[in-house]
Automatic annotation (TrEMBL):
GO biological process, one term: DNA catabolic process
One Pfam family matching this protein: S1-P1_nuclease
Protein name as it appears in the record: S1/P1 nuclease
Signal peptide per UniProt: none
Coiled-coil segments: none
This protein's UniProt keywords: Disulfide bond, Endonuclease, Glycoprotein, Hydrolase, Metal-binding, Nuclease
CDD domains, A to Z: S1-P1_nuclease (cd11010)
InterPro entries named among the record's database cross-references: PLipase_C/P1_nuclease_dom_sf (IPR008947), S1/P1nuclease (IPR003154)
Any GO MF annotation of the entry: endonuclease activity
Source organism superkingdom: Bacteria
Keyword Hydrolase annotated: yes
Transmembrane feature ranges: none
Length: 356
């Protein structure tokens, strides 16, 4: 939490606060989508999600008491479930890690057996490679690709999101499976619009294996926030905020700054009429271009290409300034708005297609 608070301090020069694609970021995207849905579409999504096979453990058990006290058909309760579903795939990663740690600390016995059973169920749903695709960006002619060919790579968001959209639409599938698909759609539409979930930057000298979507690229934020270097990926993940109390206000700022009408051509161009693969590829291409031009901007590239300072063994951490963060904030808000509107459109089409 402390690291994220320092990022907020780093962009204090910008009006308001905004960061993105951590839990708050995903919930903000889901909130944008929810408010775009008709009541019938909200009910469609809600009735699916309560059939989620892990609803008791991962939804009901985490529900705030004031939300749990509301009736099942209450719109505010349904909205909470909808936004929580958008972070469910990330919660699986944490549960996987925690259960493995618990197993390692226990001797054989009933308690360990029960935790192993719970871990097996989590692993059935946890798909860590689905969250991203590392399309290469090379900043010098000697940074040759170090990414496995598509045929040998694990499934990524480019394949996983279209598959989830098809399963959501398929009324022949068990409703529990379609509920899981909806949770993945809620999450992966957000991931596919985060630029650093689509790329890997290669530098022959400093990042010959790629930066893993900014996870291996260490930066320093301006001001007091720069006391502790951080990963570029974390800077972008936190670009919409990390405080649940401010998510409603953050959503309002985004839709005011980037209203649906301003994105009408982009939304029309990715309406799914050309197929879900083409639609998702368009979203990923947009994110890739945003990474190429805005995430890895000229100053960051110059730092990677410049001769090292005397005595230095690497260019890291690379200093980011407030101008970089303010430009990044604008890009993040636009990507989040697009994600929210497109997510609503996907759910609307699914509700229409699966209507009896």
């Amino acid at each position: 939490m402390a690291a994220r608070l320092t990022i907020a301090a780093a962009i204090v020069a910008a009006p308001g606060t905004a960061r993105a694609w951590n839990e708050s970021g995903h919930r903000i995207v889901a909130r944008i989508a929810w408010d775009e849905l008709t009541r019938a579409q909200q009910v469609f999504a809600s009735e699916l999600l309560v059939r989620h096979p892990r609803f008791a453990e991962d939804f009901a058990a985490r529900m705030p008491p004031e939300i749990a006290a509301r009736p099942a058909d209450d719109a505010e309760r349904q909205q909470w479930v909808f936004m929580h579903a958008a972070i469910w795939p990330d919660l699986l990663k944490g549960a996987n890690r925690q259960l493995n740690e618990a197993i390692a600390a226990l001797s054989a016995g009933p308690e360990k057996t029960e935790i192993e059973r719970r871990l097996a169920d989590v692993k059935r749903h946890d798909n860590p490679t689905w969250h991203y695709d590392n399309k290469p960006i090379h900043i010098d002619p000697y940074a040759l690709p170090a990414i496995a060919p598509p045929a040998t790579r694990p499934l990524g968001v480019q394949q996983a999101l279209p598959n989830a959209l098809r399963e959501l639409d398929d009324r022949s599938l068990p409703v529990e499976r379609r509920a899981v698909a909806l949770a993945w759609v809620l999450h992966l539409v957000g991931d596919s619009h985060q630029p650093l979930h689509t790329v890997a930057l290669f530098s022959s000298r400093h990042l010959p294996q790629g930066d893993l979507g900014g996870n291996a690229l260490i930066v320093r934020l301006p001001g007091p926030a720069g006391a502790t270097p951080t990963r570029l990926h974390a800077v972008w993940d936190d670009m919409l905020g990390d405080d649940p109390k401010t998510e409603r206000a953050a959503k309002s700022r985004i839709v005011a700054a980037v209203p649906r009408r301003s994105l009408k051509p982009k939304l029309a161009a990715s309406d799914g009429s050309a197929g879900v693969e083409a639609m998702v590829n368009l979203w990923l291409d947009e994110s890739y271009r945003a990474a190429d031009t805005s995430v890895y901007d000229g100053r960051l590239r110059e730092a990677l290409l410049a001769p090292l300072a005397a005595g230095a063994t690497s260019p890291f951490p690379i200093a980011l300034d407030r101008r970089y963060l303010q430009a990044a904030r604008a890009v993040a808000m636009r990507r989040a708005a697009l994600a929210g509107y497109r997510l609503a459109d996907c759910i609307g089409r699914a509700e229409n297609r699966t209507r009896p």
